[in-house]
Amino acid sequence: MPFSSLGLSSVLLNTLADQNFTEPSPIQAQCIPAILNKHDVLCIAKTGSGKTAGYVLPILMNLQQTLAVKNRHAHVLVLVPTRELAEQVAAVFKTFSKNLLQSVKTVAIYGGVSINPQMMALQGVHVAVATPGRLLELLNSNAVSLSAIETLILDEADKMLNLGFKEEMDKIISLLPKARQNILCSATLSKDLQNIHQLLLKNPIVIKIETEDGSLDLIKQVAYIVSNEKKGPFLRYLINHHEMKQVLIFASSVHQVDAIVNKLRKNNIDAKAVHSKKSQGSRTESLANFKSGKLRVLVATDLMARGIDISSLPFVINYELPRSPKDYIHRIGRTGRAASHGDAISLVSTNELDHFGIIQKKMGKQVELIDSEQIRIK
Ligand code: AMP
Q1: Are residues 161 and 154 in contact, defined by beta-carbon separation less than 8 angstroms?
Q2: pTM (predicted TM-score)
Q3: Fold observed for domain 213-374
């Protein structure tokens, strides 16, 4: 099915062609008509499935009609869990807004940077892509109004609706007009989300393209049993042995991320850290250098696990396992995106083995487990 049969304007079709989007991904083929028809949508999309364009394109189409009539205040609010994802989603809106008849202004709003430029930028905004904390600050200082929001999107909805964000989300949702279109996107559908979407969505169209395990087919998973003391040398062996040019490494704490980076750098492997204690400037720079291939190794906490799109990322390594099986799926989903293949390697110590069993059970997939003692690393 071509994009041209989905009801998009010729301007958007031209931009799609410029971006080399030749045909819609399965999620796009279903999301675009549903959102164009102003339905509420619950979209359970595998990671890297193209869900962002799946909601951005029809929203821009619908906005063209709204903006022809009214132009004041933001009409679309996208809520995301991390600053990096806010920038990434805003960039997709900006790409597809080029050449539209009614120009669309998108602003990314998130904490960790000074608030004044964002306040100024919000003048005349149509699409706000925000993390909840900074949005509330801006609402408190009347820099933005939610009174004209027609469409609410929760990207990484399971994360947005979990306990950590609950108070902020309740407050924001209470400030939105009751009559609105709601779109929830999530790679994983937890029980909580099933309950909460009933509160948020009115007769939603549920779009579920593949089961969670099916979504992982492009990712080759392998795990090595490695003692905690040997994880450092074994990690360096993997990077060198596979001649990894671009690898994203996950660890569970800020402290561990910094320790891994220091060790790699001491061993002449170029690495940078991204975690919540780094300045936003440094986070942005490291991610940009990593995406462009200038930086070989990025070591991160689960901050980087959600939604971040690094095209053709070949390797993800779990230096240690995340507590939640869902986070394991999100982490390895940074590779194997948009139909390209990837390798996900986990370093599992013996005391993590039971937990790894639970992760595999939840994922519905068995992962090859190799004893690292059988491998000569020097
Ligand atoms: P997402 O799942 O929204 O993060 O998208 C994953 C990647 O797929 C992004 O780099 C998009 O630019 C790319 N992408 C999305 N839709 C298409 C499409 N129809 N054709 C080609 N690439 C696409």
Answers
A1: yes
A2: 0.83
A3: Rossmann fold (3.40.50)
- Establish whether residue 51 lines the binding site of ligand 1, counting it when its CB lies within 6 angstroms of any ligand atom: yes
Which amino acid appears at position 327 of this protein?
D
Q: Is the CB of 15 within 6 Å of ligand 1?
A: no
Residue having the nearest C-alpha atom to atom 16 of ligand 1: 50
Q: What is the pLDDT of residues 38-69, one digit of tens each?
A: 999 999 887 678 999 999 999 999 999 988 77
Residues of the chain within CATH 3.40.50.300 domain(s) are 3-210, 213-374
Ligand 1 contact, 53 CB (< 6 A): yes
Query: How do residues 171-187 score in pLDDT, each as one tens digit?
Result: 999 999 999 999 999 88
pLDDT tens sequence across 240-251: 999 999 999 999
Instruction: Taking each helix axis as running N to C, give the angle between helix 231-241 and helix 254-266, from 0 to 180 degrees, rounded to the nearest 10.
Output: 60
Separation of CA 25 and ligand 1 centre (Å) = 8
State if residue 338 touches ligand 1 by the CB under 6 angstroms criterion: yes
List the end-to-end C-alpha distance of the chain, in Å, as a whole number.
52
215 lines ligand 1 (CB under 6 A): no
**CATH numeric code, 3-210:** 3.40.50.300
Residue 338 pLDDT class (50, 70, 90 cuts): low
- Whose CA is closest to atom 15 on ligand 1? 50
Task: Report the chain's C-alpha Rg in angstroms.
Answer: 21
Distance separating alpha carbons of residues 247 and 298, to the nearest angstrom: 7
